[in-house]
Design goal:
21 helices, Rossmann fold, alpha/beta, single chain
């Protein structure tokens, strides 16, 4: 029996998004006992996640409040944390997987003392360390969001070493279903078509204005009949009241449901119109179709609803998405989402006649619209449904996505047999965008990539020379010169990345790898460094091949379309 601890001290949506990871561990072919460490505030959600054998909860409030209160001292917080770490260590975990990505969780990961660790932890000297190529990619993607095309659910699955699962999972008890049915009956809604509305969000930047929300719903009601049911937390009750006042027959259930009751009620809805927030993931988990209005720092490629057939609307504006650590003061993205667009999508989804493609007419000028689905490898993806040209950026991001899917799983970043895969992906791209691409064969000049490869080769040469020196301290002058040469190489790579943002994902992945090298002996560090430079050079050589093969597939598709 392999004992695995998964650390996910996050909110409701994040917990549900970890359900495919847990399912993957349980279906890995070996006998696995899964312990899940969660925030006590969402323990009732964690209980409903299938595959969890043991549940351990931590009261963040119980830790923070004693430290903040005057004259309370550190003893209550210490006793709580000591009890938690004693319990974790007593389970003797074979593996600890941390997907919370915070310094707080890194401390707990280290204190759990698993035989193997994946994700953020602390080394023996207390410094932050990240174990695993996909875990490093997560931090890379946070810095280079414009070049990330992976949903967080898939990233967390790969961090844990399991395959993407295609959906989220929750166990709805018979009791929760009965409670939902009783409440619907009490509200005289039995037999009525219900549409869930979620007007709240974790930050104001992600929250579509109530007036626009109401306008979209009222316009939908003029096309198709339903009862709007408003969901949210207790603190959003006032927000729900404001929305309900603008909608005929609306029912405001903000603050009236537990998370599990929320799931059971959303399961009874035919559609959920929502900002990017926790209830959105609940709706996706129970299989209710979602219209996700992505605003502020919510990047749809990262956090849109996981599953098949959901719709995502995001603004076309240069500052979207916001930086997640900065507060926006102008909210310019909010009016970019026209209520008429949301209403048109909602009515079509409720009537079951949403077309596979929409013409790029003026009504959609300020938005991007996507449908969620899965690629041939089973990875979640967004497919644009507006008939717009394929851009240089989208082609490059697809090349990056295909390369990372292989390189970070230990496969060659490029091999001749990938050409057919890339060509097929190129064909899918042009089918998705459906108009001749605005790219040419010279759009991706190879000069910056060639410089990156040259720098990586130089670094590899210096690192290999250090490896050969090993522990020979008589060659200290030579070691010093090689160290200076490596520092200059790394500075050159960083300058190149900042000057060519499309190369920064490669440079950042390399840099995170260097930050997480282990040991202190020169020969070992030199070998690890050499491997990092070798990988960087391979990525730099692979990308033009992926771009060329994708472009070839696009060109074949365009030629076939023209001939037809």
């Amino acid at each position: 029996m392999k004992r695995v601890l998964v650390i996910n001290i996050a909110r409701m949506g994040d917990l549900l998004q970890s359900s495919p990871l847990i399912r993957g561990l349980k279906s890995s072919g070996e006998e696995v006992e899964v312990t899940l460490l969660v925030s006590a505030a969402f323990r009732d959600v964690a209980v409903a996640i299938p595959g969890v054998d043991h549940l351990v909860s931590l009261s963040l409030k119980g830790v923070i409040e004693p430290l903040a209160l005057p004259n309370s001292g550190m003893q209550p917080a210490y006793r709580l944390l000591k009890g938690l770490t004693d319990e974790l260590q007593s389970r003797h975990f074979d593996r600890v997987i941390n997907i919370t990505h915070t310094h707080y969780s890194a401390v707990l990961t280290a204190l759990a003392m698993g035989a193997e660790t994946t994700g953020m932890s602390l080394d023996n000297q207390g410094y932050r360390v990240v174990y695993g190529d996909w875990a490093n990619y997560y931090f890379n993607s946070c810095l280079n969001r414009a070049f990330n095309r992976f949903n967080l659910v898939d990233l967390h699955c790969r961090i844990a070493g399991v395959k993407p699962a295609g959906r989220l999972y929750i166990n709805l008890s018979d009791e929760s279903r009965r409670e939902a049915a009783d409440l619907i009956d009490e509200l005289h809604l039995t037999g009525r078509r219900l549409v869930g509305l979620v007007p709240g969000a974790s930050t104001p930047e992600k929250q579509w204005p109530v007036e626009l929300f109401a306008e979209a719903v009222n316009e939908t009601l003029r096309m198709v009949g339903f009862i709007p049911v408003i969901f949210g937390s207790p603190r959003e009750r006032g927000l729900g009241d404001r929305l309900a006042a603008l909608l005929p027959e609306a029912v405001n259930l903000c603050g009236r449901t537990t998370p599990i009751q929320l799931a059971a009620l959303l399961d009874r809805c035919q559609l959920c119109i929502t900002n990017d927030t926790g209830p959105m993931h609940v709706a996706a988990t129970v299989g209710t179709p979602v219209i996700d209005i992505s605003l502020g720092s919510a990047l749809s490629h990262e956090t849109a609803p996981y599953g098949e057939g959901h719709m995502v609307v995001e603004p076309c504006i240069s500052c979207y998405p916001c930086h997640p650590k900065l507060r926006c003061t102008h909210l310019s993205c909010h009016p970019k989402i026209p209520p008429s667009v949301v209403a048109r999508l909602a009515a079509a989804m409720l009537d079951g006649n949403l077309p596979a493609r929409l013409p790029d007419d003026p009504e959609f000028a300020s938005v991007n619209i996507f449908r969620t689905g899965f690629d041939p490898d089973g990875w979640w993806e967004l497919t644009p449904i507006l008939q717009r040209p394929l851009t240089r950026k989208e082609l490059f991001n697809q090349a990056l996505r295909e390369m990372w899917k292989r390189a970070l799983d230990g496969m060659p970043p490029w091999a001749p047999e990938y050409h057919e895969i890339a060509a097929r992906a190129g064909l899918d791209l042009i089918r998705n965008f459906n108009i001749e691409p605005q790219i040419t064969s010279t759009d991706w000049a190879n000069a910056p990539l060639s410089e990156l490869v040259s720098l990586a080769d130089n670094g590899l040469s210096s690192a290999m020379e250090l490896t050969r020196i090993g522990g020979d301290t008589s060659q200290i002058d030579r070691i010093t010169r090689l160290g200076a040469r490596l520092r200059e190489t790394d500075l050159g790579l960083i300058r190149l990345g900042y000057g060519n943002p499309e190369l920064m994902p490669l440079v950042a992945q390399f840099t995170f790898g260097k930050d997480n090298m282990s040991g202190w002996q020169l020969a070992s560090l030199a070998r690890q460094t050499a491997e990092l430079y070798r990988n960087l050079a391979a990525w730099g050589r692979a990308l033009p091949d992926w771009v060329a093969a994708l472009s070839w597939g696009v060109k074949q598709a365009v030629s076939a379309e023209a001939a037809a």
